[in-house]
Specification:
Bound molecules: adenosine-5'-diphosphate
Shape: elongated
Structural class: alpha/beta
């Protein structure tokens, strides 16, 4: 099927000429002479790309572009500005900041315009293919993890039953083998649960509301109560800001960061402090520990799914920090670590003041 373009321009002659050469190049071209009409056609017909004049009689092109970007139905349609009047560099900046993908100053050679249109359509196609394959991959991970739960439960249950019913009559070696089977099944169970948690985070929508960050911290501390007591961990937190967040997900971020601070402890009892620093447009939240620390070489890698540095001596699946990253980014923030081996770690993440949350 031929790609559909929307050509928005109030200058009839120029618009007609453009439509003609684009049609000859194999595109199906829709037309609009005003901004609002263009918006309406974009919503109804969902063209593959929009060519947008800046000076329009009703709403200016920059505003049309912002409106396109703020509507989930049209936010991903590529937009090229074409203008003969707004030619200064600040205009180009404003157009691109409004969400356009390109800004061309007239006169534009027809072949150059066609090549630009094709390049943007190719980029969008590649992006769509990537999104589709990512979606399939997470679906696959979810289904596999989900389906593995039941057979695994059987392996574990029957191994436990064997130990309980016949353990007394078994040779010591056989008993050890059975114990290994149960331990292996339990490790796999934890891994699958982490995978499922990760899949769910990727899929569900955020439920945000203004929340005092003390609340998710306290939720995390409640969940970690046993571990905290077991290791005599001391956790302090300063007064926290109220931010528009999904409190359940934020609690997961704190649970993973505090849980890790305890898991990767040094010889001394874990001492963890959580603080918030206000900046002009965001808050920086820091979780500071006195644990074994991390070689800065791995500062980025540890946030990648399944990446583990201390895999042998500590249980885990390398999913915790990937979940933190996912959740923080869903809230429009970023996460990083500052650390050195033997000197504890500082995990920091930002949360924008104005809600930039997206699922
Ligand atoms: P997991 O704990 O299951 O291995 P994570 O994604 O939570 O997975 O962490 C990834 C890796 O980052 C861990 O294996 C560990 O090597 C390192 N790490 C995470 N938190 C800390 C910490 N507070 N101190 C030292 N190392 C840490």
């Amino acid at each position: 099927m031929e790609p559909v373009l929307l050509n928005v321009d109030d200058d009839e002659i120029g618009r007609y000429a453009r439509t003609r050469f684009l049609s000859r190049a194999g595109f199906h071209v829709l037309e609009a002479g005003e901004g609002l009409q263009g918006l309406q056609i974009a919503r109804e017909r969902k063209p593959d790309l929009i060519l947008l004049d800046v000076n329009l009689p009703d709403v200016d092109g920059f505003e049309v572009c912002r409106l396109l970007r703020s509507d989930p139905e049209t936010e991903r349609i590529p937009v090229i500005f074409l203008t003969a009047s707004k030619l200064a560099d600040p205009d180009v900046v404003e157009g691109l900041e409004a969400g356009a993908d390109n800004y061309l100053r007239e006169p534009v050679d027809p072949d150059v315009l066609i090549a630009n249109v094709r390049a943007l359509l190719r980029a969008r196609e590649a992006e769509d293919a990537l999104a589709r394959s990512n979606e399939q991959l997470s679906r696959f991970a979810f289904v596999v993890s989900h389906e593995l739960q039941e057979p695994l439960r059987m392996v574990k249950t029957y191994s436990q039953l064997l130990t309980k019913k016949y353990g007394a009559g078994l040779e010591p070696d056989a008993l050890t083998y059975l114990q290994h089977t149960v331990q292996g099944a339990e490790r796999m169970e934890r891994f699958i649960q982490d995978m499922l948690r990760y899949s769910r985070i990727s899929e569900g929508d955020l439920q945000t509301k203004p929340t005092r960050l003390e609340i998710p911290i306290q939720m995390a501390l409640m969940e970690l109560d046993l571990t905290i007591k077991e290791h005599g961990a001391i956790i302090e937190y300063s007064t926290m800001p109220t931010i528009e967040v999904d409190s359940m997900r934020m609690a997961q971020v704190f649970r993973n960061l505090i849980g890790n601070a305890i898991k990767y402890r040094s010889e001394t009892a874990p001492a963890i402090s959580i603080s918030a620093e206000e900046r002009s447009s965001e808050f920086v939240i820091t979780v500071n520990d006195n644990g074994i620390g991390i070689d800065p070489v791995y500062s980025d890698e540890i946030f990648v799914l399944f990446k583990r540095l201390h895999g042998r001596d500590k249980s885990g699946s390398g999913v915790g920090l990937a979940i933190c990253k996912q959740i923080v980014e869903q809230h429009g923030g970023a996460i990083w670590v500052v650390s050195k081996p033997g000197q504890g770690s500082q995990f920091c993440f930002t949360l924008p003041k104005a809600s930039a949350a997206h699922a």
